[in-house]
Amino acid sequence: xxxxxxxxxxxxxxxxxxxxxxxxxxxxxxxxxxxxxxxxxxxxxxxxxxxxxxxxxxxxxxxxxxxxxxxxxxxxxxxxxxxxxxxxxxxxxxxxxxxxxxxxxxxxxxxxxxxxxxxxxxxxxxxxxxxxxxxxxx
Length: 138
Description:
Layout: H1 2-26, E1 30-34, E2 38-40, E3 43-45, E4 48-54, E5 64-67, E6 74-77, E7 81-83, E8 91-97, E9 100-108, E10 111-114, H2 119-129
């Protein structure tokens, strides 16, 4: 009888532990519909439903993965800053330059990730907007 009691107790602890772990992993996961093509980590991703999550949630490393099951597109990114101030918002933030959108931030319930948009990418988008060649000419 004691063996069965310990077996049930161990099973209950495992089930409860897995439930808490799954919830903790979901706190920093974001699912969003992006209605336009956008640039992240130098890649253009098509419009669609995306999931953003940490690559290694248990280690606390900052690497993020953004991926879409429907478009099979995705990218890895390393945010430049993480602000752990809790937010009620869960959203993706974009910087709009010309006709391009650049992923610039990710808000989750546990905090906000800032993603740096390289100045060269902004300059290129501005140049394309004005219809001139970015290579320059003399």
